[in-house]
Design goal:
Chain lengths: 204, 204
DNA sequence: GTCTATAGCCTGATAGAC
DNA sequence: GTCTATCAGGCTATAGAC
């Protein structure tokens, strides 16, 4: 209850995070200056240093903020009722929709995978991805007993994310249509692929 | 035969590209300075401007250089002999091995997907990816007549690339083993998934 | 908690000698 | 074709008034 505000907890500190996130998502750590952030927030550059000791701390706080809610919302998509097939369908549909609706999160995720140092990746894994990953892995295990669940869980995520990652370039590749960016179409495709409908030559 | 050297064709110009590529791959465009590149090449910063008019031109030339050979080597993995299943196996195995052996190329590819402007992405698509993509799409079409070939072709690439993209963070996720980074293991997993062995519950 | 002013360094790029 | 020297401006971060 004490009105303590250790760096990052004040109201302005939250605004700074919310305003800096889209900048970091679009231009990356090195591509965003403290002046850019200050301008977006509407305060002077010096004021930023009252809330965060340096640029790196601000960045790490912004990342933590961006990923904080994701863990639970991804995991809640899984649930644990119904058959594995039903749970797969539910997960893929929900995860695809969530990723479609948050381009900034996707960009930050890919940037962290590219540039995150050991410490940041460990933090990200342990605070965000471990729990949902466990649930996906559990689902993978039930679906394919003879397949490495870790590999399959990664494949499930990659299958969805890569369609968004390539959104910009697919415009220039043959057969690229608007509907390929529709989360419903992507989800249906991924589900049918994962349920083995494609290789076996039967229906989707 | 005339010894013309329009910027970028001299010997030093090639060395500049080769030395700058790993820097751009690891730190991105904004994370690398002209001085960094000059130091890596072993010349002064000013000398760089004799070969390329500015940083952006150098970067674009470096990208073109990095992607130049890839198109044919990816495509050659496909060939057009054998059954679709055989061609799939050949493609996945070869593509996985190629990606495993070239982390810099992977990083550059992901950076371009994140940061490439319309012009660069169009160039990349038309000069590098269109032809191999067509071949993969053709293969996808033969394998699954009732499935959107464009979607399936993207899925095939993403299925492979995401395992490498997550190499660093999988260390901290449950069930992550060294063998999951082995291109042979990844390829085998992807092939068995694509041939429908997983969802149908039969073995790989 | 925010401001203006500024230190000190790094940036992309140029000038001109050799 | 490469060098040294340099410019003009941007960068992170700090000092000190309010």
């Amino acid at each position: 209850m004490a009105d303590k505000r250790p760096a990052g907890n004040s109201d302005t500190a939250q605004v700074i995070l919310n305003k800096s996130l889209p900048l970091f998502a679009r231009s990356g750590y090195a591509g965003v200056s403290m002046r850019d952030i200050a301008k977006a927030v509407g305060i002077s550059g010096a004021a930023l240093y009252h809330h965060y000791p340096d640029k790196q701390s601000l960045y790490v706080a912004a990342m933590a903020h961006a990923f904080a809610d994701k863990a639970s919302s991804i995991q809640s998509a899984l649930g644990n009722t119904g058959s594995p097939e039903q749970r797969l369908e539910r997960f893929v549909t929900s995860f695809t929709k969530q990723m479609a609706s948050d381009p900034d999160f996707r960009a930050l995720l890919h940037r962290e995978l590219l540039d995150g140092d050991e410490k940041r990746l460990k933090l990200l894994a342990e605070n965000v991805f471990i729990e949902p990953f466990k649930a996906i892995k559990q689902l993978a295990q039930e679906m394919a007993l003879d397949c490495d669940a870790h590999l399959l869980a990664i494949s499930m995520a990659g299958l969805i994310l890569f369609h968004f990652e390539t959104q910009a370039i697919r415009r220039y590749l043959p057969g690229g249509l608007k509907k390929h960016n529709d989360p419903k179409v992507i989800a249906q495709h991924v589900i049918s692929l994962l349920t083995g409908a494609i290789g076996s030559g039967s229906r989707q």
